[in-house]
Structure formats: structure tokens, C-alpha cells
Task: structure prediction
Amino acid sequence: MKHSKMLLSALAIGSLQFAGTLWAQDQSMPQQPPTPPQPQSQPLMPPPPPPQGQSVTPPPPPPGSTDPQQMETQATPPPPPPSSGDQQQMQPPPPPPPQPGQSTTQTITDKGQPARVNSSMPPVASGPAPSFEQLANGGKSISESQASAYPLLANDFKYADRNHDGRISKSEYEAWVKK
Result:
């Protein structure tokens, strides 16, 4: 009887946690209404009239201006470029082919725009393999800390250490360099 109460309690708690998780994931961000422009506290003074016979271009509006005429001219988008009847909308050029070791994924953003994600491993500047004597510092074997001087060997240390003694002998190193 005691075990059935514990089992029922665990089942109830698990169900509530699961329901809470689902409810938390279902919450969407509330949309905030756009704020109306704030009226300026100072009245706008008209500019002084231009001297007779001269034309004066108006100065650019200050940032955050709420003058209706200025807002209307700012909100007017530039005209679209002329298009010929046989041309469709300009599309971006096709993506370049992926390089070796690179992967490309196409996805759609939350705003419905396509996005391309490229990923690759950074190239390892390897160069020619150093001599055994240089890595071993004159010793008879290369330890794991000594192998870190040559990143490719440090990466393949367990593979190069054929007898798994934690050190790379000269014959093991030469066999690894050949591969």
C-alpha cells in the first residue's frame, strides 16, 4: 500500500512537471503596440524668410523630429529600379560550392527569410614533420607533452603509440610519419 502511494505521487509530480514544460514552451512573446510619436514641448518656430533674390535649401531635420511634413518625406521609400519586361526580380547569386571539409545548411529564419549556415574545421598549418630528435629533445622517446609541440602528432598520439606505453619510440614515429 505504501509503495502505491509513492508511485501515485511520483506519477502526479511527473505529469505536472511535463504539463508545466509544455505550457512554458507554448508561451509566445507579446506584441507591443507601436508607440505614437511624442509631441514636442517647444513650439516649432518657422525659419526666417530668405533674403530677396536668393534661394535657401532647408537644413536637414534633427533626429527624432515629429514634424508631419518631415516624417512624410522621410517615410517615402525611394522608387524601385527600372525593370524590363523579360527580367524577373533580381535574385542573389547562387552560393559557391562548399570547400572540402565544409558543410552548408539551408534554413528559414523566424521571420521567413532564407538563411545559409556554413561551417568548417579551421585549417591546421602542419608543414613538414619535425625530426624525431627535435621532438624528443635528444631522448629515446616522445612523451605526450613533447608531442604537443607538433599539433598533428599530438592529435594522433594514441594512434602513433602502437604499444600503448604512453611514449612514442623512434620506430613508432617513423611509421606514423609514413602514413
User: Anything to note?
Assistant: The mean pLDDT is 74. Residues 2-26 form the longest helix (25 residues).
